[in-house]
Write a structure and sequence with these properties.
Elements (H helix, E strand, L loop, with lengths): L2 H13 L7 E3 L8 E3 L6 E3 L1 H27 L9 H10 L15 E5 L5 E4 L17 E3 L4
Parallel strand pairs: 1-3
Antiparallel strand pairs: 2-3, 4-5, 4-6
Protein name: SprT family metallopeptidase
Pfam family, one: Zn_ribbon_SprT
Organism: Streptococcus ferus
Length: about 140
């Protein structure tokens, strides 16, 4: 999907206004569906939400960001707490909040050789450098099966 062309189409169909900037995917977004940048007018979107929830929910996220975009360039209240934003968002049927993404599970499990306390981490721990926080014992990586 050409994201900029899709956003232009949604802007014209749902707002009756043209979108004149770029829309890009941003894989680093974790909790938000998208972002509007007033400085240069471009929009960022979370590709993970598109993959998880499909085009119907993603279109509502695009509407939300386009509310920020069009209100900013119309010199009206474009922030979440502004009345103009809330009214336009309700009128076009955009999402107020992005849907929740599934939490990532810890990938690495470590066990203290002394007190047998278990640690779960998403990133690898340098076993030469770090020790148990409770008893200062040596950590051992548990086999992932």
């Amino acid at each position: 999907m050409n994201l900029t062309e899709y956003v232009k189409r949604v802007s014209w169909e749902d707002f009756g206004l043209s979108f004149k900037h770029k829309a890009v995917w941003n894989k680093r977004l974790k909790s938000s569906g998208g972002r509007f940048f007033p400085k240069d007018g471009h929009l960022d979107f979370n590709p993970h939400l598109y993959e998880a929830y499909g085009l119907d929910v993603f279109r509502k996220i695009v509407r939300h960001e386009l509310c920020h975009y069009h209100l900013y360039f119309a010199q009206k209240g474009y922030r979440h707490q502004d009345r103009d934003f809330k009214e336009l968002l309700a009128a076009v049927g955009g999402l107020r909040y992005a849907p929740k993404m599934a939490k990532t599970q810890a990938c690495y499990t470590y066990i203290c050789s002394s007190c047998h306390l278990e640690f779960q981490r998403q990133r690898r721990v340098n076993l030469q450098k770090f020790v148990c926080g409770s008893c200062y014992g040596k950590l051992i990586e548990k086999n992932q099966s």
